[in-house]
Design goal:
- The protein is α/β, with parallel strands linked by helices and 257 residues long.
- The chain folds into 2 domains: 191 residues, Rossmann fold, CATH 3.40.50; 45 residues, no CATH class.
- Helix content is 37%, strand content 19%.
- It has 11 helices and 8 strands.
- It has an 8-stranded mixed β-sheet, sandwiched between helices.
- Strand 1, helix 3 and strand 2 form a beta-alpha-beta unit.
- Helix 7 runs antiparallel to helix 8.
- The model has no long low-confidence stretch (mean pLDDT 94).
């Protein structure tokens, strides 16, 4: 397992820096980030993405299925004496959040969801009439599109493209490497629900959700914090080639309405 996956405070801090440096400036082109606005993150994890929004005075709400991650988020915010509301739940089982939010954040979430069509269909009901959605995810075929970085094995967690092997081979390698049942189940689930750029854009179009902007990155903005690499957008000549672009896209940014 990569160090940032074990050290949750380190990961929280890394996410908060990336969010401040890159997510907020990008989103601000389409929605002014200001004190008092309501921000929801679905699949918030430890809450790192939300911290800079809360520091700007936004009313932040984070929802995640993991009770452990939500406990960490509450703790990390309390340590900084920053206010944020965090709920361990399936977002679609909660009441009272409809039509409330100016901004919805879905960072590295859609690739985990089996029924993507239903998920996307339900998102707009949580926005107010002027609200927007910031969606980001790694293209499936990129080197670590399978999220193998969560593996306990140092070799497997740093091994690119292994998630593209046939399922039986992938599962066997994970077992041989000593990964636990929960980890294997999650990784196979991600493989089963793989999210390519083309699949995502087809689903968005079918659900009549408007793409206001899109950016495809060859070097993920988060890699500046992780590896010291400056973000680089995907060259246009590759970005226009369907399916091929998935191999080179480490992160997709979308503004949806």
């Amino acid at each position: 397992m990569q160090e940032r996956q074990k050290n949750r405070k380190l990961y929280f801090n890394e996410l908060s820096i990336t969010s401040k440096r890159y997510y907020i400036p990008y989103i601000s082109k389409y929605k002014k980030i200001e004190k008092g606005m309501n921000v929801l993150e679905i699949g918030c994890g430890d809450g790192g993405n939300l911290l800079p929004f809360a520091e700007l005075g936004c009313n932040t709400t984070g929802v995640d299925l993991s009770t452990g991650r939500i406990k960490d988020a509450i703790l990390f915010f309390e340590e900084r004496q920053i206010k944020g509301d965090f709920i361990a739940s399936d977002i679609f089982k909660l009441k009272g959040l409809e039509h409330k939010f100016d901004l919805i954040i879905c960072h590295d979430v859609i690739e985990h969801i089996k029924d993507k069509a239903t998920f996307l269909s339900n998102l707009p009901k949580y926005m107010n009439p002027e609200g927007i959605i910031f969606m980001s995810f790694p293209a499936w075929q990129m080197p670590f599109g399978g999220h193998q970085q969560i593996c306990k094995s140092k070799i497997i967690s740093h091994f690119p493209f292994i998630h593209l092997l046939p399922t039986f081979m992938y599962k066997s390698i994970l077992k041989i490497a000593g990964e636990n049942t929960g980890c294997i189940k999650e990784l196979i689930s991600i493989k089963d629900t793989r999210t390519s750029i083309e699949l995502f854009e087809r689903l968005v179009h079918r659900k009549s959700i408007r793409v206001m902007d899109k950016q495809l990155f060859f070097i993920n903005p988060h890699y500046e914090i992780k590896f010291g690499l400056k973000p680089r957008k995907l060259p246009a000549i590759i970005g226009f080639i369907p399916y091929v672009r998935n191999l080179f896209t480490t992160s997709c940014f979308y503004i949806l309405k």
